[in-house]
Design a protein that fits this description.
The complex is a heterodimer of chains A (169) and B (635).
Chain A: H1 4-18, H2 28-39, H3 44-54, H4 58-67, E1 79-84, H5 87-91, H6 94-105, E2 111-112, E3 118-123, E4 135-137, E5 140-142, H7 147-168
Parallel strand pairs in A: 1-3
Antiparallel strand pairs in A: 1-4, 2-3, 4-5
Helix pairs in contact in A: 1-2, 1-3, 2-3, 3-4
Chain B: H1 6-28, E1 33-37, H2 40-44, H3 47-60, E2 67-70, E3 82-85, E4 92-94, H4 99-111, E5 120-123, H5 158-163, H6 168-174, H7 178-188, H8 200-209, E6 216-221, H9 230-237, H10 239-253, E7 257-262, H11 267-282, E8 298-303, H12 313-320, E9 344-348, H13 349-361, H14 363-367, E10 377-384, E11 390-395, H15 400-407, E12 417-422, E13 428-431, H16 441-446, E14 455-460, H17 465-479, H18 485-502, H19 509-523, H20 528-532, H21 535-554, E15 567-570, H22 581-585, E16 591-593, E17 600-602, H23 612-616, E18 624-627
Parallel strand pairs in B: 1-2, 6-7, 6-9, 7-8, 10-14
Antiparallel strand pairs in B: 1-3, 3-4, 4-5, 10-11, 12-13, 12-14, 15-18, 16-17
Helix pairs in contact in B: 3-4, 6-10, 6-13, 7-8, 7-10, 9-10, 9-11, 10-13, 17-18, 17-21, 18-19, 19-21
Classes of the chains: A alpha+beta (169), B alpha/beta (635).
Chain lengths: 169, 635
């Protein structure tokens, strides 16, 4: 989808990030992490740049990116929703919470809403088992997220959006 | 023993320590010191808002008191926790503090003299005003060694750690010969806390005697077991104890470089560990010629990328080398040929945290705690259906009953205990009959579970054993790296069979196939992930076969959990006709009022079985029930 202009921009951004690293294979994962931190995801052009920089086959980069859960191949939404499915969360209804998010956002896990407002995914365990079921909303763990709290969180985002809209006007 | 430079090490450190102690003393002389428990769990409960409220109110009242973040005390059920130390009073621990309580504490306790007893959890010291935490029933079962500092010092300030005796074990170790340290660790009987329980001293000796340079020390903080958070809590609350352990390990095995491998899902642990490393480096406790000795050691932090299998040591090394984390054949063990083919010592976070105490207090002290074959303490993360969720540290040999009922105060609402899940996806669910089992590495393995890294999830009658087996298989199946056929395909088949059972399908003879295949997966896999993946299924079948049979034969889920085998139903006689709580709360508008009689009806087609109505229905009516099988719902 990316046009030439976008591609060049991605390349430049990636190169800027890579300039802070030394060219050794052991740096593959840290470089990918930094690139993803900068771009929000790992587009094809960025992976190609990383392969060139470390002088390794492109397939090795792609292989590593698709092996680890943390890397994503498509752009994230403005807000990230991570439903914890650790043991405690699952047993206290994390799967029900996930269903509720899916239903409300109308997307499946691993997807981003059409307006790029939200992306939904699961996480194996964030170690806040005590607050189960947990959903990590924009890097902040929220405890006891049940279907009604899902609606509450979405409502608070909507309010914010409305406020922002008013200010603009 | 090296004679040169020795007095220098001691005197250099003495200076560092004196300064740290002076800073700590200065804190004690202030009007009050406020410590806010702000590990990830505290933050999730709102600790940062509490912290801001304290700072804001102190400013408003024109008070100059130090406020800082501390780690996790282990009483997670009481978060956010705040400790206030005011001269003339014991150090008081407050529970479930919110911004309103925080502001009140500033006005009434710090400015005034009312310690606001209604919010108190306990006191750190014995006193006449507030019950001490040491007098809590759980305290007589607990023995805190590696959790001792957690929640009591600022993990972002190295001086707090040093003032409490930190890094003095390193100074002591630097005066010993490496072999003397290895022997001490061997004599202590310390076994690796990562799960398998391998003798730590042996591992160190193997690494030291292996040819090849440079050698590496890796701290395995890839705590991937869902339901376990001990390593996270230690790295967030007391990162220097792990660094000191690594330094001593590095000196003992003759390593030059170290890595701390932390999960990507633990951003706060990453942040605090990084900060701790840079502070240690500034004081020359890390880096070239540490404290003027000829020992040099550098540590880097490596952030994992979300792969459970990377907790396995050979996969972890592959990941450090920039490859996909697939395990490789052992032997050779990493201690002989690890990172870049060099001798590499890999120890768990908790194992390394024990080292300073062993060097400091001696092997004899350590081996005197716990049981003969598993000396020391075990750290458990208690979660699930238990009153006092949190972290605890108990001597090995403590029984499961003591941990769950005495430390954890049992099950909320007085419901009957059903099982305890130990060791995550590698462990199993143990029933009531195993509760008096003394916990150590060997007894748990015998019972079919595994020590694992120490996650303990308590289950009650509302938890379905078939579903939990399915859950773990779904996890291991997804996390299987795909290298071994039995793990890759076998777990998939196991998962599909279990999923069928949770839908009330399958046949009784499938249970035998399930057990047989589980044994094959165990035998045909290379690494711990595949070899232990069948554990949740096998222990479950061993102890809870009747639940499997109920699912298969009757299409009934006895715990009323499996969504396809239950239905929600409103009992018309119990329904209060003027109340609309369930109608308003239903997230999918599946509940409606009967047009004439006013009682409520659930549209089973629309219902998504989320259970919101059950919570919404006022307890005095208690009109909504779950029924299994769904055909139980009257037409």
């Amino acid at each position: 989808m990316a046009n030439t202009e976008e591609k060049t921009k991605i390349k430049e951004q990636t190169r800027r990030i890579l300039s802070r690293f030394s060219r050794k294979r052991g740096n593959l994962i840290p470089t990918l992490q930094k690139v993803q931190e900068g771009l929000g995801y790992l587009p094809r052009e960025a992976m190609l740049e990383v392969a060139r920089f470390l002088d390794i086959p492109e397939i090795d980069v792609y292989g590593v990116v698709t092996f680890y859960n943390q890397f994503r191949l498509n752009p994230p939404g403005k807000h990230s929703i991570r439903v914890c499915l650790g043991t405690a969360c699952h047993m206290k209804g994390g799967y029900i919470t996930l269903d509720a998010w899916k239903r409300r956002l109308k997307i499946d896990r691993g997807q981003t809403t059409a307006d790029r407002e939200f992306d939904l995914d699961t996480v194996a365990c964030v170690g806040c088992c005590v607050m189960a079921p947990v959903t990590v909303v924009d890097d902040k763990p929220e405890g006891q997220v049940e279907p009604t709290k899902v609606d509450g969180i979405l409502l608070s985002f909507e309010r914010e959006r409305e406020k922002r809209g008013k200010k603009k006007r | 023993m090296k004679a040169t430079g020795l007095p220098d090490i001691a005197s250099t450190f003495q200076k560092i320590r004196k300064r740290a102690e002076a800073r700590w003393q200065e804190l004690q002389d202030r009007r009050a010191v406020i410590m806010v428990g702000a590990a990830t769990c505290g933050r999730a409960a709102g600790a940062l808002k509490v912290l801001r409220a304290f700072k804001d109110e102190l400013k408003k009242q024109n008070l100059d008191c130090p406020v800082f973040e501390v780690g996790c005390m282990g009483h997670c059920y009481a978060e956010p926790i705040v400790i206030i130390a005011k001269p003339g009073y014991p150090s008081i621990v407050y529970q479930q503090v919110n911004p309103v309580i925080a502001r009140r504490l500033v006005r009434e306790f710090i400015l005034g003299d009312d310690p606001c007893l209604e919010s108190v959890l306990g006191a750190l010291e014995e006193n006449e005003l507030v019950p001490g935490l040491a007098d809590f029933p759980r305290a007589q079962f607990e023995q805190k060694i590696i959790l001792k500092n957690c929640g009591h010092i600022d993990p972002e300030d190295i001086d707090h750690y040093i003032a409490g005796g930190g890094y003095s074990a390193l100074v002591k170790a630097l005066r010993l010969k490496p072999d003397e340290i290895i022997n001490e660790v061997k004599k202590s009987g310390l076994r690796g806390r990562g799960g398998a329980g391998f003798a730590t001293g042996e591992k160190w000796a193997t690494c030291r005697n292996a040819p090849g340079r440079p050698r590496y020390v890796i701290c395995n903080g890839d705590e991937g077991d869902p339901g376990a958070f001990m390593d996270r809590a230690i790295l967030e609350s007391d990162p220097h104890s792990v660094i000191e352990g690594m330094l001593i390990a590095g000196y003992a095995v003759g390593a030059r470089y170290g890595y701390i491998y932390v999960r990507a899902e633990y951003p706060l642990a990453v942040h605090r560990t990084r900060l701790a490393l840079s502070q240690a480096k500034k004081l020359n406790l890390l880096g070239r010629n540490i404290l003027g000795s000829d020992f040099s050691f550098d540590i880097k932090l490596f952030q994992g990328s979300g792969a459970f299998v990377c907790g396995e040591e050979s996969a972890l090394i592959a990941s450090l080398e920039g490859k996909a984390g697939t395990p490789s054949h052992r032997p050779p063990y990493p201690a002989v040929s690890g990172l870049e083919g060099k001798p590499t010592l890999i120890n768990n976070v908790k194992t390394l945290a024990f080292i300073r105490h062993i060097v400091d207090k001696g092997a004899k002290w350590f081996s005197g705690i716990g049981t003969k074959n598993s000396p020391g303490t075990a750290v458990f993360a208690l979660a699930g259906k238990v009153v006092n969720t949190g972290l605890t540290e108990v001597p090995m040999g403590t029984t499961l009953r003591q941990v769950i009922f005495d430390v954890g105060s049992g099950i909320p609402g007085g419901k009957p205990f059903k099982a305890v899940q130990i060791g995550g996806p590698s462990g199993g669910c143990l029933p009531e009959s195993a509760l008096d089992l003394p916990i150590d590495f060997d007894s748990l393995t015998e019972a079919g579970a595994m020590m694992g890294s120490g996650g303990m999830i308590v289950l009650d009658e509302d938890d379905c054993m078939v579903e939990i087996a399915r859950y773990f298989l779904e996890f291991t199946q997804r996390e299987s790296c795909g290298k071994c056929t039995f793990c890759r395909l076998g777990t998939k088949q196991l998962l599909e069979m279990l999923a069928e059972f949770t839908r009330g399908k399958g046949e009784i003879k499938d249970l035998d196939t399930l057990a047989e295949l589980a044994e094959d997966v165990r035998a045909g896999s290379l690494c711990g992930l595949g070899r232990t993946a069948p554990n949740p299924v096998l222990t479950n079948l061993r102890y809870f076969r009747d639940e499997y049979e109920a699912h298969i034969k009757e299409g009934r889920c006895p715990a009323l959990m499996c969504q396809e085998l239950i239905a929600f139903y409103i009992i018309p006689d119990r329904c209060e006709l003027t109340c609309d709580a369930c109608v308003g709360n239903c997230t999918v508008e599946a509940i409606s009022s009967h047009p004439k009689k006013r009682y409520k009806i659930i549209d089973q087609e629309k219902c998504v079985k989320c259970g919101t109505c059950l919570t919404a229905c006022p307890p005095q009516y208690n009109a909504i029930v779950k029924l299994s099988p769904p055909t139980e719902v009257p037409k």
